[in-house]
């Protein structure tokens, strides 16, 4: 087993898994960072691809309705923050008939869209994953015993973050806070994950302890924008204030702020209309931040950045 990569924490891997269906990822699907039942839908969250064909003339032969081929899944990666490595979320399009397989494969492999993110996993893979509705647990099958103990050089904090990366991803897909059990050989044979016992079911840690306190959902990394666009995401920021900036190199060329739906106890949705009609065409960086009431005396604000192109 290889040593984890040096940035934040590390990994590369592929996963082969069996799955359950993902329902309604458009509403913030994270079951801990915000409550799906009370969260407004992000305006640019990816939606399922629907191949349905509607005929314009009833006399014409209608094509059979095709099921959605892909769906949006929340995948959690690791990124740097003023308080050490934490989890950031990307919505990724995955196969609708088996979202766990592809989403967890992306997670463990560190297959990111935003190059600021990475993964906490060393080389290896999971063999399968499924939701046992009767028992009320998400069952994750280990491929072998290589991840039973921490990888060489992996600290306890890194191991715990890797565990949370898995828990947040599969619970987000399930949209349920079901405990997660890792097994090998027999589903009743729970095994540790990087030395952390899973027999009683892994649960999501407090989001304020493991998630980056600001996360940009839209614009996505590499988005092209013109005139106006809507920026949104999740944050837990002082007095719900979420400042944002557009930078060109080290120069701030535009700034504003959003007011999130809440703060303090978890991450809440924020949204802001951004007018870039006065900017020259070119490449820029959109940055959303937490407010820093300490005036620089504390660790500093959390930040999530996305490269955008203004046309």
List the helices and strands and how they pair.
Blueprint: E1 70-79, E2 86-95, H1 99-109, E3 126-132, E4 137-142, H2 156-174, E5 180-184, E6 186-190, H3 207-210, E7 214-218, E8 223-225, E9 228-235, E10 241-248, E11 251-259, E12 268-275, E13 282-289, E14 303-310
Parallel strand pairs: 4-5, 8-14
Antiparallel strand pairs: 1-2, 3-4, 5-6, 7-9, 9-12, 10-11, 10-13, 13-14
Helix pairs in contact: 1-2
Structure characterization notes:
With 311 residues, this protein is mainly beta. The protein folds into 2 domains: 212 residues, no CATH class; 97 residues, Immunoglobulin-like. 11% of the residues lie in helices and 32% in strands. The chain has a 5-stranded mixed β-sheet, with no helix packed on it. The chain has a 4-stranded mixed β-sheet with strand order 3-4-5-6, covered by helices on one side. The longest helix has 19 residues. The N terminus is likely disordered.
Give a concise summary.
By secondary structure, the chain is mostly beta strands.
Q: What distinguishing features does this structure have?
A:
single chain, 311 residues, mainly beta, Immunoglobulin-like, 2 domains, 4-stranded mixed beta sheet, 3 helices, 14 strands, 11% helix, globular, disordered N terminus, signal
Strand content: 25-35%
Stretches where pLDDT falls below 50 for ≥5 residues? 1-27, 31-64
Instruction: Compute the CA-based radius of gyration.
Output: 20 Å
Count of helix runs = 3
What's the β-strand tally? 14
Q: Which structural class is indicated by helix and strand composition?
A: mainly beta
Q: How far apart are the termini?
A: 46 Å
For the residues shown, what is the average pLDDT?
A: 84
Strand order of the largest sheet: 8-14-13-10-11
Whole-number total of structural domains: 2
- What is the approximate shape? globular
- Note the main sheet: 5 strands, mixed
Approximately how much helix is present in the residues? Answer: 10-25%
The run of helices and strands is: EEHEEHEEHEEEEEEEE
Signal peptide: 1-23
Protein name: Immunoglobulin-like domain of spore germination
Domain Bacterial spore germination immunoglobulin-like: 214-297
InterPro entries: Gmad2_Ig-like_dom (IPR018911)
């Amino acid at each position: 087993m290889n040593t984890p990569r040096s940035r934040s924490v590390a990994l590369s891997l592929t996963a082969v898994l069996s799955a359950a269906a993902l329902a309604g990822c458009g509403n913030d699907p994270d079951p801990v960072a915000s409550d799906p039942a009370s969260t407004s839908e992000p305006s640019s969250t990816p939606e399922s691809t629907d191949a349905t064909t509607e005929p314009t003339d009833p006399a014409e032969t209608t094509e059979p309705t095709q099921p959605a081929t892909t769906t949006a899944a929340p995948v959690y990666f690791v990124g740097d923050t003023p308080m050490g490595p934490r989890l950031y979320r990307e919505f990724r399009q995955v196969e609708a008939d088996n979202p766990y397989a592809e989403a967890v494969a992306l997670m463990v492999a560190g297959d990111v869209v935003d190059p600021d993110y990475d993964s906490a996993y060393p080389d290896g893979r999971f063999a399968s994953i499924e939701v046992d509705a009767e028992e009320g647990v998400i069952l994750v099958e280990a491929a072998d015993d290589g991840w039973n103990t921490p990888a060489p050089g992996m600290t306890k904090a890194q191991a715990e973050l890797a565990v949370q990366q898995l828990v947040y991803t599969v619970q987000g897909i399930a949209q349920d806070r079901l405990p997660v059990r890792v097994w090998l050989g027999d589903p009743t044979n729970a095994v540790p994950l990087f030395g952390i016992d899973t027999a009683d079911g892994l649960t999501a840690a407090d989001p304020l302890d493991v998630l980056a306190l600001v996360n940009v959902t839209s614009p996505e990394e590499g988005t092209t924008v013109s005139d106006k666009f809507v920026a949104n995401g999740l944050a837990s920021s002082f007095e719900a204030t979420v400042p944002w900036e557009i930078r060109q190199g080290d120069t701030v060329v535009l700034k504003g702020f959003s007011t999130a739906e809440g703060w303090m106890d978890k991450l809440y949705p924020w949204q802001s209309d951004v007018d870039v009609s006065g900017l020259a065409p070119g490449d820029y960086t959109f940055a959303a931040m937490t407010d820093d009431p300490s005036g620089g005396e504390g660790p500093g604000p959390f930040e999530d950045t996305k490269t955008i192109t203004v046309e």
